[in-house]
Every structure is written in C-alpha cells, then in structure tokens.
Amino acid sequence: MAGLVSAFQFLVISAVLLSLNMATGQSASHETASRIFPLTAVSFLVGYLTLLLGALVMRKWSKLEALLYHLTGGIFALGAVVVRTVLSNESTPVYWQAPISNLRLFLVTLLLFYTLHAAIGSANSRISEEARQAQVARAALEVQRRRLIDSQEKTRKQIADFLHDRLQSDLVILGIQMNRAAATLPTESREVLHAFVDEIERIREVGVREVSQALAPELQNRSLTHAIRDLTRQYEPVTQISVEVSESAEVTESQRLAVYRIVEQALLNAVKHAEPESVSVVINCGAHHIDITVENDGRQLPATGSAGSGFAIIETWVSQFEGNWSISPSGERTILVARLEI
Amino acid sequence: MSRGLRVLYVENDEALLGLLSQTLKAHPAIEELTTARNSEGALHEANEHRFDVALLDVSLGPNSLTGVELAMNLRDKNEHLGVVFLSQNISDWNQSELDTKFKYGWSAIQKSANLSFEYLTEVLAATAIGQSIFDPSAKATSPKNENLSAKLTRRQHQVIALAAVGLDAIEIAKRLQLASVTVRQELSKSYKVLIPNPRPGTDLRTAAVLKYIRDTRPEN
Q: Which of A169, A196, A205 sits opposite B13 (nearest CB)?
C-alpha cells in the first residue's frame, strides 16, 4: 500500500518535471534526468518509509488509528516538501522556488494520499463485501444441504418403518391365521398351506427386511460393525471385501449413519466404476474423530473425472461433521479417506 | 411355580396384539395378561400392577420409546422383572451389549408366523425366574437365496416349469409326450434339488414350485 502510493508519487513527479521541461522548451536530456532521478528516488524512499512507519504505528496503537492516519498523511506530504527543498538548486524552476509552491506541493501530496487511500479502500470494501456475501451464500447452501439430507433420511425412515413395522406385522398375522386355518384341514391341504406360509415368511424375512435395511439401516440397537457387514455382504458375489471396525461407545447414532452412508457410497462407486478384485474398509473411531478408509485395487480414477453424485453425497455427509475427505491413487490402488470430527 | 405368570405384553400393532394376547390368555400357565400399545401405557400399567415378565415388541412406533428403552424403564420400577423381546430380526442383535444392559432374565424371540405359543410361554416362564434365552431359530435365518434351479437338467426344467403353471403329472406327460411315471420321477428328483432340506409338514411340490418361480424370475 505504502509502496503503491510512493510509486504513484514518483510517477507524478516525473511527469510534472517532464512536462515542465517540455514547456520551457528543453528536451528531456541527460541533464534533466540527472536532476529527476535523485529527487524522485529520495522522495520515493522518504514517502515509502513514512507510510510504512505509519502503518506499523497504527497497528500498535490501534485506538489512535484515525489520528495516526491523518498524521501519517501530513508527514508524508511534509516529507515531499522537505525533499524538494533540500534538493533544490539553481536549475530548479523558479516556479518551484516560491514559498507558496511548498504549500501547494503539501496540499497536492496530501490530496494524493487521501485520494489513493479512498480509491483502494472502496475497492477493498467492495471485495470484502462480496466475500462476505459469498460466505453467507455458502452457509445458506450448507444449511439447505443439511435439510435436504435430513428430509431424505426422514422419508427413507418412514418408508422403512412402514415396511418393517406394518407390512412385516401384516405378513406375520397372515401367516399365523393361515397356520390356524391349516390346522383344521386334511393333511394334504395343510401341507400345501404350510408351504405358502413358509414362502410368506421368506418374503418377510428376506425381501421386506432387505429393502427396509437398504432404505434406512437399523443403527439403534446394532453395532456399526454389524451394519457395515450387512452392507458389504451384498457385494460379496462380485468382489472380495474385508472389513475392520474399531468402535467406540461414544459414537452417536447420527455419526454411525454418516459413516454408513459414506461407506455405502464409497463401495458403490468402487464396485461400479473400478470393478476391483478386492476392497478393504477400515473404520477407526477415535476420541475426537472417526477415520474411514476405503481402498480398492480396481481401475484407477480418470485424471479428468467429473465428480459423480456419489462424491456429492460423501461431500455432504462429511461437511455435516466438519470433516474432510479425499480420493487418490496410491500405487496400484485407489484410496478414499474421510475424517469426521466428533 | 405355584401360581401362573403375570405378563405385561406391549405391542403397537393392534391386530397382532389382539391375536397373540387372545392365545396367551387361553394358556393355562398364564394367570394374568395385561396389554399396552406403547411405552407410556406400559409404564402406567407397571405403576398399577406387578408383573413377573414383560413381553415387548422392539419397535413400538414413532410415539414411543423402543422396546429396549422401555425395558430399562420397567426394570427401574421392578428389578426382578423378566423381559422378553419380540423382534422381526434378532439375528443381528448385539447380544453382549444387551447382556451388559440387562444381565439376567432377558430373552429375545424371533417374530414369526411359525412361532409356537408353547415355546413362547416356556420362554416367558424361564425369563420370569431370571434365565436368558436367545431364540435359536434366529441363527438359522438369513437363508442364502441360492439359485438351485440352475442345477436342474433340461428335462427337469421342462416338467417343473409346466408344474409351475398348474398342470398335474398326467397333463405334463401329455404335453411333453412322456410316460406319466417318468414325469413323476423327474418331478420328485427336481423337488430334491430345489428343496434339499424340507421342513416336515410342508408340501414339497408347492415349496419346489415356489422356489422354481423365484429362481427363474428375471431380475427387475
């Protein structure tokens, strides 16, 4: 900042001298240059140091900032006058030698100081206002994202609850009633009915349960290890998956859900895009954070890969817990690492 | 035990509540059966009466504590209360976690159409005197839906496919121009392939046809 003002001053002085020389019919010869150079260099130095010192002092006594600011401006302008007076000689234009010209120089330099500061200040405040707005928008987006994910989980939970509670109960009741009715029938019909009941039970235990688990994993009465194992089981026919979970009692249900959803996406992405032979899932619940590592030995990510919806989902969950995540190749393998703060 | 059991049964599904409580009430081992539809009602009943054992559905709906939470609250009121959980799938329960929570007199039973009331009553009685039972039928669940129909021969495929649309052996024989004896032989071979471990008292043909339909149905 100080450098900018001084440099500007340097340019102004050079321009004034050149124009004066042209006005008096002299060309910008070596002679003039030898006069311009020390004058501008010294005034640059004095101006720069003054402004630098001013900034340092202002930072130290921030309460007196306004006063010190104007004082710096005054000294800066005064410095310009002093430098010119000291460096004046017989070749200095008469125009500059009159005492009133010192006052003029003082005022012009002071004006320059204020004008430049005002210009830079307004630009700065505009930028910081824009930055502030961007920050507000970002925070709003974060809130929206959280709401979206919350309502999504809520809807999933409602459907899962319906399947799990209502539909399963209905099927149990149906089965019990059929068994009762069967008891009064001749053996052959009874056995047919039993086979139907078995099929209903199978649909209830496997079909309905799997769908309801996929919609909303049961994490209330279950450990994370169980839930993750259930999740990886469905990939067993296509790839070999190893799971390692170190749990901690302090991990809440919502944190478990976040871990589950992140692993779910990581696995889905790995299996879908990389077609790996083996995948390893490691979850480490520490005192302050949960670390998730999902590694696969499949095809590497394309360098210019566009982020898919899976990554957006991971990003959303990670941001809920002020964590961070990354995916990168490591030798033959691709490693996804996510950390959640707890 | 000289007198019958006093049971508190909590279930949010009204139909199931009615069905099970009717049967349990009729059982000679049960002296008294009180029902509640949610945790609030259950805790209220627990203040009014004294029970030997509570039979609790695990998921009691959105306006209630879960069965496990309710059990903890009921234990606070009566430390001798046995608790029996009735759940859709106890196979993935964390048994040791519940063991540290309840220590004694807690059992878990798989909700199922084939649940025997005799067995349920036995578990209630055992839990009431402090024993813990984990329903063994739960471990047998999670059957792998292996595609056994792939193991059938071409001829077996033909006969079972026709059986699946409802034809009997004679009609199948006519359709395939085979002797009906051959058809019967092929069918019974197919049953063995499709249902390797039949449950006693179930009709093999029905079970095998259902399995065949399931196996050969295209995904989505």
A: A169
